[in-house]
Design a protein that fits this description.
Number of strands: 12
Structural class: alpha+beta
Radius of gyration: 21 Å
Strand content: 15-25%
Shape: globular
Helix content: 40-55%
Largest sheet: 8 strands, mixed
Number of helices: 11
Bound molecules: alpha-D-galactopyranose
Distance between the termini: 13 Å
Order of helices and strands: HEEEEHEHHHEEEHHHHHEEHEE
Length: 394
Amino acid sequence: MPLNASSLQRAVEVFRVSFGTSPEIVTVAPGRVNLIGEHTDYNEGFVLPIAVDRYLCVAARGRSDRTVKIVAADLNDSDEFSLDNVQSDEQANWRNYPRGVAWVIQQNGIELKGIDAVVASDIPIGAGLSSSAAIEVGFALTFLHFVQANVPRPTLAQWCQLAEHKFAGVQCGIMDQMIALLGKENHALLLDCRDLSHQLVPLPSGTVFVVADTGVPRTLAASEYNIRRRQCKEAVQWLSETLGRPLRSLRDVTIEELGQVFNEMPEPIRKRARHVVTENNRVLAFQQAMREGALKRAGYLLLASHASLRDDYEVSCRELDAMVNALMSVDGVYGARLTGAGFGGACLAMVREDALTRVLEEVPRRYVEELGQNAPEPNLFAVRVSDGAWVESL
Ligand code: GLA
């Protein structure tokens, strides 16, 4: 896929300046937006993400030794480590992603070679577009390229996830790594996080997806995220005992079963469970609506997802709610919801193509109006649905 991303040019230029030679390859990894299916992946449920045309690029050249040198073009920072002793780094968190993937690939028996690399990215950090999965996937494919190892992409996604758990300290699910590796232009990826089986869902023409960043950094995301994971585990345990059969995850519970015991179930775990169980159904209904071109129905499902994330899962915030309101106040917006982990970051909206200009003009004003004087500065942009990561030889 030809690419004119500014991150690609930056990575190549900074490589020349930093290493005095040209890179051999550039690995391109997309950001992602989840259309629906939030906080379901680590509950073995369904998700429906898209890869988007915001890219992280790794320009690289192989070395003959076991040293890895990385320049982070946008951060004015660099890293150097030996593949013989890969440790996490406490000073700069970005360093843990390349280190983590190098560690996990070698743990799986593939001996890597050193590289010189420059990373540059157009994926906004902290907006919920998963710049973290992009950097993991970008470096994983780069490392593997230089030893000519072929790892099936779903397996590689699991390795990248483990790298994030071990080196970055976030117990993330599998969605982000899967879509960054398996995305397809003009399609969403319906992924069953129980067994990683997946299907491409064609997206209807005449609509565009808009990312509406609230301007609020996701400060609580990591700690609250891990708390939600724990609460889901507790819910599974309580439901296993009460329903009298062993459950592996919230995926094993139907809405009817949850309804039967809901009144006895303690808070907050019953609300958490209700979000996950209903959200799984919404994913399946939404992908069906996409296939049928039933855009209004799809829009309602997005709004229902937001309400459930706000009221039951409690991962929204004032600004995310205000953004959904601002988006929905413009004619031609089918639906909107927070996307990603929540606690700040961005909303996603599904917009009729001919309403796009109006949305980009009107929504920032209405958002600021609703929040008053200290409103953070929003940033809205339309995304195109991209392919998953790939390696370009130069
Ligand atoms: C983060 C995680 C994903 C997923 C979402 C919530 O983006 O990295 O695995 O759990 O939050 O849906």
